[in-house]
Protein: Relaxase/Mobilisation nuclease domain-containing protein
Amino acid sequence: MVARIITGKKLRGVLNYNENKVLEGKAELILASGFAGDIDRMNFSQKLQRFENLLMLNPKVKTNTLHISLNFDSSEKLKDETLQQIAVTYMEKIGFGDQPFLAYRHNDAGHDHIHLVTTNIQATGERIDLHNIGAIHSEKARKEIEIEYSLVKAESKQYKPEPGIKAIDITKIKYGRLPTKRVISNTVNAVINAYKFTSLAELNAVLRQFNVTADRGAEDTLMFRKKGLMYSLLDEKGNKIGIPIKSSSLYTKPTLPSLEKQFVKHEQGRLQFKRGLKETIDKAIKPKGTKDEFLQALKAQGIAAIFRIGANGQAFGITYVDHKNKTVFNGSDLGKAYSAKAILDAIGQSKTSQKASDHLQKLMKTTRMSTESVEKTETNPIKTDTPEINSKLLETLMKDHFDPSGQPPKKKKRKKLRI
Structure:
């Protein structure tokens, strides 16, 4: 089992995300702890009000939202009752057993996972400290639950991590079965809340795997200068389709200025996963292997490696998306040994070195052919056996045609006759 913890300031947004999943048929509410009345008859506003009643007790606390996803191995098919018990046990172990919370079972990925929504404001108005809650409480709770419920351990070789977000089904969009704005909003919101990225390019490396992209427009456009941002759907070939959606029109407003604040925050947040990622990449590199074998080895560990290809067909960069730890790194961020060229060289698949070798062989072949042709056609070859003859020959050939200064020969001026 793997636990993902996200703290935030917008409980409404988190609740809206999960409720939209329910409306789309991609999730269901399986547990409402600390809610009075029939939860099945409660609408969005009533659920939100339960949390806001607590938030009003301590309005000074800005980070007041806790959104947790518990992810299970793809081989495990757990019943609702088991997931309910795991949710209650986990919340008790991390110190939130007395807090009201909602548990949603999501079915939009290749593995079972539940989302837990709650607040850290207690009925007394005091707040529960969220600082480093993952390392202090969650990791211990996760390991105990794995043993208690006989789950596949996250550290074991059997565990198969997969992205917790499912790619948008473009066929459903084409036939109008899913509203474009809603599915883009849900996907963007899920990625932004879960992954740690430090640039728009890194964010796009994740979004593109779920058939979405963020675009600033051309550099000479007003949108680019104003830091505007549009989100678009992508088809199976990576081409934009449909009408782009303005970032400001999405519910959580994932605008560029808003994202730039996260870039700075994620710079430190992802560092703890850097060493582990490098070790995983090292193990995936096999001398005399193939590029596909390298990519598959990483995929088996929940890591996507995206090579950036230039117009000349050569790889000029690489980005690593770690779906297990929800982090994104450019090869240059990890070190020179993890750049696109270094990786391709390490597995013997460098196109640059191969093209250079091919060019050299072709050049050598052409030179041999030219030499042979000259030897066959010359009838009265000039003897150039001595250095003196070579020097005189060169001087004669280059005379009046070459100036060491690189300037063309100057024409002599005629003297005007004075009458």
Summary: The first strand starts at residue 2 and ends at 8. The mean pLDDT is 82. The chain has three domains: 1-162, 163-268, 270-351. Residues 270-351 form one domain.
